[in-house]
Amino acid sequence: FWIDNISIHETTLTPVSNAVGAQKMDSVMKDWIQTTVNRYKSKVRAWDVVNEPFTDGNPVLRNGNSTGDTYYWAQFLGRDYIANAFRYAREADATADLYLNEYNLGSNPAKLDAIVALANELKAAGVPITGIGTQMHITINDSYSSIDQMLRKLAATGLKVRISELDVRAG
After folding, report:
1. What is the pTM of this model?
2. 10, 91, 121, 165: which one is catalytic?
3. Are the CB atoms for 154 and 109 separated by under 8 Å?
4. Nearest Cα to 29, choosing from 71, 67, 66?
5. Does the active-site annotation cover 121?
6. Integer Cα distance of 9 and 4 in angstroms
7. What is the pLDDT of residues 135-170, one digit of tens each?
8. Residues in Cβ contact with 67 at an 8 Å cutoff, skipping those fewer than 6 apart
9. Is 52 an active-site residue?
């Protein structure tokens, strides 16, 4: 699983503007995460807990309004949804690796810095994050030095680093 789209009837959702509504949404998220992790924990050893949390360009957290997408967790729960998602996954499986996952980290230095800052913030807060995943959609002409720099910055967090997707275009 990954937390990037809410899978309940999107047409009935409206932003939560009160604590009771936010608590209900958080409960939905927790139940969804823990049901999924518990169902597969004997088979799955690593989860992309939060997938693609940042917009492109000058990265900000996606919120459903920033990109025209259907990314609702931040809109409903604020940025705390990220830490809570990791905590809920850890409660369901004490041994699984839990990843923060993002794309374009080798070609977007601002996005790379944003994901590193978020990972370091989560670590400092005691959130059970295990690693950072990078989706590498590259070409044979991409700069090796930017890829090397990306991997070094990710490794400098002290977290595991994995290439979660890799495709190399020939042209």
Report:
1. 0.86
2. 165
3. no
4. 71
5. no
6. 15
7. 999 999 988 999 999 999 999 999 999 999 999 999
8. 55
9. yes
